[in-house]
């Protein structure tokens, strides 16, 4: 029981770090594309405290992990601000800024998984949850439902007229749809039923 609690707390710490890297990557991409908003807000940093939302980054993930016995967690950081008027191609650049977060988590998961391959089992086992957390965060954020990154990525890829219709729908109903997808009907959430096979595949691909 103590070890399980330790694993849960470790996973929450890893989630905080993964969210910090995720949000920093959004800020870095925006800064490189000519928008200083995130830098001015103090978000161009790897310091987790700059990106923590108390409820979304700490309270909710810890509560879900404890209630599910470490089987499920969901969380978010403070949204990284950017001003589309500072971007040369606002729709395309917003998509680049959005996808930077998930890509950073997948890259980090790959690097840490490679390190795990070369570490003794007794040490590497403590890094495995970090790989899993980063994969899960990346995959979850690619869901094309507002306010997740996937919405802005799809918005950038769709033809202009369809993109703005899609954005209007997401602005009105995206959060409600996301809550519906997360809510655990009959013991499991609909979104996890879809994402879990993808997450498991990536974990098997990366980890020994």
The overall strand count is 0
pLDDT < 50 runs, ≥5 residues: none
Kindly name the structural category.
mainly alpha
Instruction: Assign an overall shape.
Output: globular
GO molecular function: metal ion binding; metallopeptidase activity
Keywords: Cell membrane, Hydrolase, Membrane, Metal-binding, Metalloprotease, Protease, Transmembrane, Transmembrane helix, Zinc
Subcellular location: Cell membrane
Domain Peptidase M50: 12-119, 126-181
List the helices and strands and how they pair.
Layout: H1 2-32, H2 37-40, H3 54-67, H4 90-118, H5 121-124, H6 128-141, H7 149-157, H8 160-182, H9 190-206
Helix pairs in contact: 1-3, 1-4, 1-6, 4-6, 4-7, 6-9, 7-8
Characterise this structure.
The structure is a single chain. By secondary structure, this protein is mainly α. The chain has one domain (2-206). Helices cover 70% and strands 0% of the residues. The chain has helices at 2-32, 37-40, 54-67, 90-118, 121-124, 128-141, 149-157, 160-182, 190-206. It is found in: Cell membrane. Its main location: membrane. This is Membrane protein.
């Amino acid at each position: 029981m103590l070890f399980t609690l330790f694993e849960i707390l470790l996973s929450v710490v890893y989630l905080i770090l993964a969210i910090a890297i995720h949000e920093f990557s959004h800020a870095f991409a925006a800064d490189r594309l000519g928008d200083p908003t995130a830098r001015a807000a103090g978000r161009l940093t790897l310091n987790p405290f700059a990106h923590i939302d108390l409820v979304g980054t700490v309270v909710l993930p810890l509560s879900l992990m404890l209630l599910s016995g470490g089987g499920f967690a969901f969380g978010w950081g403070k949204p990284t601000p950017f001003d589309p008027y500072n971007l040369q191609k606002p729709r395309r650049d917003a998509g680049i800024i959005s996808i930077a977060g998930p890509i950073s988590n997948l890259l980090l998961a790959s690097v840490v998984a490679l390190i795990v391959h070369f570490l003794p089992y007794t040490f590497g086992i403590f890094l495995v949850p970090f790989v899993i957390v980063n994969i899960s965060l990346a995959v979850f954020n690619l869901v094309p439902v507002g306010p997740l990154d996937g919405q802005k990525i799809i918005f950038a890829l769709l033809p202009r007229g369809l993109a703005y219709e899609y954005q209007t729908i997401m602005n009105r109903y995206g959060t409600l749809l996301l809550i519906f997808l997360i809510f655990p009907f009959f013991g499991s959430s609909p979104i996890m039923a879809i994402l879990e096979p993808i997450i498991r595949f990536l974990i098997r691909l990366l980890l020994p």
